[in-house]
Design goal:
With 118 residues, the chain is mostly helical. The protein contains six helices and three strands; from the N terminus they run αβααββααα. Helix content is 61%, strand content 9%. The protein has a three-stranded mixed sheet. The longest helix is centred in the first third of the chain and has 16 residues. The radius of gyration is 20 Å and the shape is elongated.
Length: 118
């Protein structure tokens, strides 16, 4: 298991980066009218939660709103925090460079066992 200079496993940083990219590349949100949303409220909400995609609800006066699950909202807020945090972004970039170069810290078996509580 490779570690970077911050002692964070590289796979953790890659998982974070993958999550960021996934959040940024999600397909465009679907739109429905407010009347249809009211008629199909339960099924619309179930789709938002199960598909992890926001739903744009359009109104006649062009004041639209977006419905998103709490889980997705929290994930997006974390993503925005990381993207705005230059220190974290620098750490991710440095970790990627270290991993690509193959120069990361490789703990001993005893250290891995200690980390895993074995």
């Amino acid at each position: 298991m490779l570690f970077n200079v911050y002692n964070i496993p590289v796979y953790v940083l890659y998982a974070l980066l993958y999550g960021l990219l996934y959040a940024l590349r999600r397909s465009p949100m679907e739109s429905i009218t407010v009347n249809r949303f009211q008629d199909d409220l339960k099924s619309s909400l179930e789709q938002v939660v199960s598909r992890h995609l926001p739903l744009r609800v359009t109104r006649g006066d062009e004041t639209d709103f977006v419905v998103v699950s709490a889980e997705d909202w929290e994930r997006d807020q974390e993503t925005l925090y990381v993207l705005q945090n230059t220190s974290l972004m620098r750490q991710i970039a440095e970790s990627n460079s270290i991993h690509t170069a193959g120069t990361g810290y490789l703990p001993t078996k005893e250290q891995v066992d200690e980390i895993l509580g074995v």
